[in-house]
# Entry
Amino acid sequence: MNQDEIIKQGTKVYSRPRLMDDRNMHYCPGCSHGVVHKLVSEVIEELGLEDKTIGIAPVGCAVFAYHYIDVDWVEAAHGRAPAVATAVKRLDPSRMVFTYQGDGDLAAIGTAETIHAANRGENIAMIFINNGIYGMTGGQMAPTTLEGMKTATTPYGRRVDLNGYPLNITPLLAQLPGTCYVTRQSVHTAASVRKCKAAIKKAFQAALDGRGTAVIEVVSTCNSGWKMSPAKANEWMEENMFKAYPLGDLKPLE
Amino acid sequence: MNEEVRLMKGNEAIAHAAIRYGVDGYFGYPITPQSEVLETLEAEMPWETTGMVVLQAESEVSSINMVYGGASTGAAVMTSSSSPGISLMQEGISYIAAAELPALIVNVMRGGPGLGTIHPSQSDYFQATKGGGHGDYHLIVLAPATVQEMADFVGLGFDLAFKYRTPAMILADGIVGQMMEKVVLPPARPRRTPEEVAKQCPWAVTGKKGRGHRNVATSLELDSAIMEKNNERFQRTYDEIKRNEVRYKTYYTDDCDYLIVAFGSVARICLKSIEEARKQGIKIGLVRPITLWPFPYDEIAEIASHVKGILVVELNAGQMIEDVRLAVSHSLPVHHFGRMGGIVPNPLEVLNAFKQKFGL
# Structure
């Protein structure tokens, strides 16, 4: 029995979103990016925004996001996605514009662009994948790397006397009057995936409606960089990452 | 807005010309000696009339990446800055060139290196014409000598940028930016409609509406075989620009025994030197390259074939002289006279330097 015949029996309860391309992803098995990509695709389709969405891809693991989600994209320089998004949105406010960035992109090299775009209240959504490590370049320290966490550039663990403290940037963004909605989510359980999808949907609608900058941090795993199995990475995230980056709304949408 | 004759600074002319050309967006950051561009745009409030977006960014890095984003959508977008700010923009300029996007960048040069001085200079010639950022790319570089050309080159820069899908730069010196002159501003034309943008720029990232397939603005390609092909395509574009777009002006070159080559406001100083020289019986001609890239190699070589020597006059330590020497292949003496640090020579000083270099 092949796939089509199985589907004909009415057993199909789940499938790839229409806006996700049928191609192999470069993401590692167990990585959170694939789940968040799926949610972004579903939300764009459900909101009927396929023709007016422009995504801004970062430099980092998600640099190839434009290979997977079937909307228009701009591939930004490292950290500059909020600046790119600013112009794309301002030149035609009827567009739904979102950035998709990792922790190095959004909270290290692009900190200025992140804070100033949010402070201007640009009507964009920012999806912030925080896995505490640089995935694409091979597991180096990120601004959000936890104290004591081993990476390629902190081989004995992050020392705050040498490397500074983990940067908790999302609460900073929540303080800015330009942000309309700031939330921290995860995608490691079925329930958290559903909540994260609702948050993305809320953020995209807010950006479209011109209510200001909407920020969705997704506390994520990088099992390759963390050198753990996907299951172990989820456990480690719950025990460690969630302590430093607790889930929930930091600024509810009013 | 109809055609209008006004007295204004070169920097102000850039701003007025941009509004009248129908530019969609300007993104900039204050830096002397070009802040009047952003100030004039903010005062004119074009968002109320043409719908043009004007935004003061948090840095030049952000400005140029806003330009990259805007250009990706097929919009006519620009920025302006001065030397240190332009250095900050180099990564973004490289991305714009590599993504094959049209944009206009204005550099009103001040003296460097480093923070240098706020006074005029031409010491960013290498940066503008030889790359500046990383990778094999070129900008179309226009060098205005008058406030009128500051205004005219906004339209010319965008026309060329869109024709070849490559960024163009107006490389002005601080003198042209700051001095006031009579300028004829062109009549205003409307900004392009979304339909016109879609037709002119089928590659533009505007949302998939009416297209079916997605457009992506990117400079990334990890397959080396494809990336080499991309580079070959860029080079074919540059070759076409070299064939079609060389611009320059000549003065007194029909009967000259010697030649001065100078660009921007310095060419005007040299013209005075030449007029004084001719009173003294020394026949000097002048070539003023208008496109610094593509450079008028063949045209200078042709004129050089009937002169005894060339003096290249620049507000730098000797940059364009390398291109002049390439043009003439050491077939005759090529000397340099330059002032640096924001000093501008007067016509007599140039003439004295000329006589000294050639033993006259």
About this structure: Chain B has 14 helices and 15 strands. Chain B has a mean pLDDT of 97. Chain B touches chain A through 39 residues (CB under 8 Å). Chain B has two domains: 4-195, 248-358.
